[in-house]
Write a structure and sequence with these properties.
four-stranded mixed beta sheet, four-stranded antiparallel beta sheet, 3 helices, globular
């Protein structure tokens, strides 16, 4: 992999992560399909409150305990004390309108069973929705420098890139202050790079995968 044909900065992809349900745990995968809106099925589903507004770990930290598994034709969700919830990947139940940050977008409700599962585990009325693939939600043009970058329910961008070196640098600084090391999963990257310097991922304009 090279970052710019005019430079000699190269690295490799060390790890890949997909987060099917926004703000729930991720899945480490060996390969992933890169689509216009990011890695396939990344942030394709989202949990909303009874007003249709998205909820995240910021307010409901128990969401971090919900662990997804992707199978050929279904998404399986597991959480402590709960029976597994099976969601058909190619099925939805009813149209909905939901809010994620400042965007109000069309979506698809995943039904009463999924809603009850999330409500029971999170302790407040919730529903699970899926992004409507017919809708084109753009990342903020202020952040992309005017480039159109479609995504689904991601906070900001279709793909988040981090590096092992940046993580090592952070953990070195944490250790110096007497804190325990943290894992890169805390930062919810899609692509983790190896073979680059700390924070090189912040300084490149274009990434080419060979």
């Amino acid at each position: 992999m090279s970052f710019n044909p005019e430079s000699d900065l190269t690295g490799t992809i060390a790890r890949l992560f997909v987060y099917p349900v926004k703000s729930c745990a991720g899945i480490e995968v060996q390969e992933a399909l890169l689509t216009e809106t990011g890695l396939d099925l990344d942030r394709a589903w989202m949990v909303v409150d009874d007003k249709g507004v998205f909820v995240t770990q910021r307010d409901l930290p128990r969401m971090a305990l919900i662990r997804p598994q992707l199978k050929t034709d279904e998404l399986v969700l597991r959480a402590p004390g709960m029976l597994a919830l099976h969601i058909a990947i190619d099925a939805v139940e009813a149209p909905a309108t939901v809010t994620v940050w400042r965007d109000t977008v069309p979506a698809w409700d995943m039904g009463a069973v999924a809603a009850q599962w999330f409500t029971d585990f999170l302790g407040q009325p919730c529903r699970l929705v899926r992004f409507d693939p017919e809708h084109r939600r753009l990342s903020s043009l202020d952040w992309t420098g005017g480039l159109e970058a479609p995504n689904q329910f991601s906070d900001g961008f279709p793909v988040l890139v981090a590096s092992e070196a940046s993580m090592d640098d952070l953990n070195t600084r944490l250790a110096a202050q007497g804190h325990e090391a943290v894992g890169i999963e805390r930062f919810r990257p899609n692509v983790v790079l190896a073979g680059v310097e700390a924070h090189d991922e912040d300084r490149v304009d274009r990434v080419r995968i060979d």
